[in-house]
Amino acid sequence: MTTDVAATPARPQAPARTAVKRRYLMCRPTYFDVVYTINPWMHPEVPVDHALVTSQWENLRATYLGLGHDVEVIEGAPGLPDMVFAANGATVVDGKALAVSFHYEQRRAEAQLYADWLRADGIAVTDAVAINEGEGDFLTVGRRMIAGTGFRSDLASHAELAEVTGLEVVTVELVDPRFYHIDTALAVLDDDNVAYLPQAFSPASQARLQELYPGAIHVSLEDAKVFGLNAVSDGHNVVVASQASDFIAALEAAGYHPVPVDLSELLKGGGGIKCCTLELRPAPTTS
Ligand code: ARG
């Protein structure tokens, strides 16, 4: 018997992925709670385990630090139980920020606290006119922004985003109330690649995403429901909900390094890893 080595099917070669150091802002979950319902995940009658929230949040922070990223911390505020979801605090691109203006009254006071923190950090902040919920709906993919609308951020905010960032802004429409922010339905993996749940978007938006990202990873409803798409990537390491097993396998096959983290107690508020993380993108270095 002979073995024909050449006949063995070649293992498809996943591209090499490169990590880029990031700077994140996280909000300490001191006052996190579920006391009202503004998304389908929130059930105030289900108690929150505060010790578990704290340890899961600390573990996320330690994970970023362990990957070599910088993590800044803003303190939470009493009466603002959703402030832990820092992604909703602003959109920061090239060292400039567009502030937020929340859809629901319950969260409106957070906007000023985030804007103040960013200004104190030296970031130029432009006030929001139309309703926008920051990186919850505005995702940066290289030099393009993908902006969601349908449940929270108003369409008019997309023009403000384009003006502040000077980047191309592609509008997509969300259609499933469980995936009310785009960061629950689409994960940015690097400057050219994303992963998403197709049916969370209108047919026209699905077609647009397919055209822009033909190589994207399509994620199952099952993995999206555990907030698998609410992930944070540095271009190589993808911090992802540990429950999203098929997505984790798909990331590995595509050459990324999944870093599973359990943030299940925060899902009681309708948030996950990305929701707890605001990326502070610096001004481009002139060299
Ligand atoms: N309870 C919060 C809300 O409904 C959760 C926000 C989650 N944040 C996010 N970036 N998806 O506003």
Automatic annotation (TrEMBL):
Name of the protein in question: NG,NG-dimethylarginine dimethylaminohydrolase 1
Domain of life, per lineage: Bacteria
GO molecular function: amino acid binding; dimethylargininase activity
Active site positions, chain numbering: H181, C275
Family to which the UniProt record says this protein belongs: Belongs to the DDAH family.
Gene Ontology biological-process annotations: arginine metabolic process; citrulline metabolic process; positive regulation of nitric oxide biosynthetic process
Organism: Serinibacter arcticus
Keywords: Hydrolase
